Amino acid sequence: MWLGTTTSWASGPSGSLSSKAGEQTSGEQPSRRVGSRQYDVRHVSKRLLTAHCPLPTVSERDGLLVVELAGTPYERGRQHGAALGDRVRHLRQRLIRDIVFGKGWAMGAGFLAILYGILARMHPNIPRELREEMRGVADGARVPYRDILLLNCFDDVLHALIQLNPVLAPVLQHRFVRPVLGWLGSPSTPAPGFACSSFVLTGDKSATGGPIHGRNLDYMISDGFVDPDGLVPVELRQNLVVFVVRPDRGRAFASVAWPGFVGAVTTLNANGLSLACLTSTVPRETANATPLLLLYRLIAQYASTLDEAEWLIRGTRRTIGNNLTMASGPANDGRRVELSMDRVTAARPDEGLVAATNHFQHPAMAELQTGWVIPNSLHRLARLSELFGHGRFGVEEAQAALTDVCPPAGVDDAWDCLHNPGTIYSSIAEPARSRLWVRSYDHLDRQWVELDLSEPFAARRAAA
Predict the structure, then answer these.
(1) Helix (H, G, I), strand (E, B) or coil at 221
(2) How far apart are CA 421 and CA 165, in angstroms?
(3) Which pLDDT score is estimated for 46?
(4) Are 64 and 257 within 8 A, CB to CB?
(5) Three-class SS string for 266-288?
(6) Type and span of the H or E element at 57
(7) Residue 241: in which H helix or E strand, if any?
(8) Quick count: other Cβ atoms within 10 Å of Cβ 170?
(9) What is the per-residue pLDDT for 14?
(10) Secondary structure of residue 119 in the 3-state scheme
(11) pLDDT confidence of 444, banded at 50, 70, 90?
(12) What pLDDT shows up at residue 165?
């Protein structure tokens, strides 16, 4: 078994359910506690068998939840929703009730109408396969499809709201409206809260003989009006999931994400291609395009090389600005792609290092962000250069870099550190060996969890 403690549900030779949970006998009623929630096999199995869907595998490794999915798009989604229904409904409740409606029914209804209006613009640009999978998640978890869509497009939708600022600003600054917003708790100037960092070590920089791809995913809505209680980072830390997906078409892949998420922010696929995306805001963005997390999901499933991934990015209508770091195990190479709705540039390793934070580095892209770059992004990039300046580095050194709390010389703010108040999780991919390390920060004593994905990836290739 490729993981530690595992509960799996599969069909036996005659179609009956067989359990692989230790020494469990057929007379027992199997259940599994993961985190603070109890998973009952009977409920999951009943919902999936009724829908004629294959059954998922849910495992836990040192507190990290791992869910294996397989089959057609709708089947995968249905498995996902049925296995994690409690958590999907919990995240939906947090998003809709506590964030969208956090300032009252009237303001929440108006805000939600704007969000759904933006989603309506994005929806036709989402490939049918991913729409089917999200619909399966919604059916399996028993929640509205549009709310699963909102979870998967939330970052793109928030960025689209920026484009509404010129329209909304006169209204929000009206002498009757502004005092009401102040009374409700809207801040005068929200503080920056984007702080993702990523690197790829290749060639002589890597001590393993193959690329090492590290990333910190940091997320915080530093806006006292939208998320005054800081619910988003807390929920993201507490509900982290690694999905291992064996689709009926394309390549098997692993995705570090959350319940309800079909899109991808951190992935590693069976062809040794790893991805990590980072926010990089530009003033001109659009809702009439494919949400980026769903685009990255397509890359994880269908691309086998860096060139194929770049080709998919260039050939797709894009919503917002982003940085994407990629590593290829077979090619022992890395790449940084900087993209906006109308431009794409790619950079190869510089002396064995690809590094990215939350701003563009290519001159043709940097001119798009004049006045938009937050200083801590520059400082974190400088810190990566300090840590990986000279020498060869292995997985342990990469882990130490991602937990580094020392800012570069001359600055002393916590957001200038690679590990900062917004850090949700750290991950390291070694794509040449199908290894993935993940560390969540929901508890101070969390350790790195190593996942050997070679067995589930090989099972998909054998089935194909």
Answers:
(1) coil
(2) 27
(3) 53
(4) no
(5) EEEECCCEEEEEEECCCCCCCCC
(6) strand 57-61
(7) strand 241-247
(8) 9
(9) 29
(10) helix
(11) confident
(12) 52
User: 48: Cβ–Cβ under 8 A, 6 or more apart, which residues?
Assistant: 54, 55, 56, 78, 79, 82, 140
Burial class (CB in 10 A: 0-12, 13-18, 19+), 116: middle
The answer to whether the beta carbons of residues 398 and 214 sit under 8 Å apart is yes
Q: What is the mean pLDDT of residues 408-436?
A: 94
Question: How far apart are the two ends of the chain, measured CA to CA in Å?
Answer: 21
Q: Give 77's Cβ-side CA count (13 Å radius).
A: 24
Question: Backbone phi, then psi, for 128, in 5-degree steps?
Answer: -60, -40
DSSP secondary structure letters along 288-321: SSB-HHHHHHHHHHH--SHHHHHHHHHTS-B-S-
Helix (H, G, I), strand (E, B) or coil at 182: helix
CB under 8 Å to 312, separation ≥6 — which residues? 295, 298, 299, 302, 303
Q: What are 120-156's pLDDT values in tens digits?
A: 999 999 999 999 999 999 999 999 999 999 999 988 9
At 95, list the tokens.
């998003």
Mean pLDDT of the chain: 83
For the chain, the domains span 30-464
170-206: per-residue pLDDT in tens?
Answer: 444 444 334 443 443 443 333 445 579 999 999 999 9
Q: Which residues pair with 169 in a beta bridge?
A: none
The pair of three-digit structure tokens given for residue 302, joined into one six-digit string: 């269908």
Which residue has better confidence, 338 or 415? Answer: 338
pLDDT of residue 221: 60
Q: Are 194 and 374 in contact (CB under 8 A)?
A: yes
Q: Of the given ranges (167-171, 183-187, 257-261, 292-296), which has the lowest mean pLDDT?
A: 183-187
390 and 231 Cβ atoms separated by less than 8 Å: no
Identify the residue whose tokens are 């090619």: 331
CB within 8 A of 177, min separation 6: which ones? 171
CA distance linking residue 283 with residue 146, whole number of Å? 27
Rounded Cα distance between 25 and 3, Å, is 21
Q: Which two tokens stand for residue 411?
A: 């600055």
Q: With contact defined as beta carbons under 8 Å apart, do 398 and 428 qualify?
A: yes
Whether the CB-CB separation of 266 and 256 falls below 8 Å is answered with yes
CA 296/CA 300 separation, integer angstroms: 6
Instruction: Write the class of the CATH domain 30-464.
Output: alpha beta
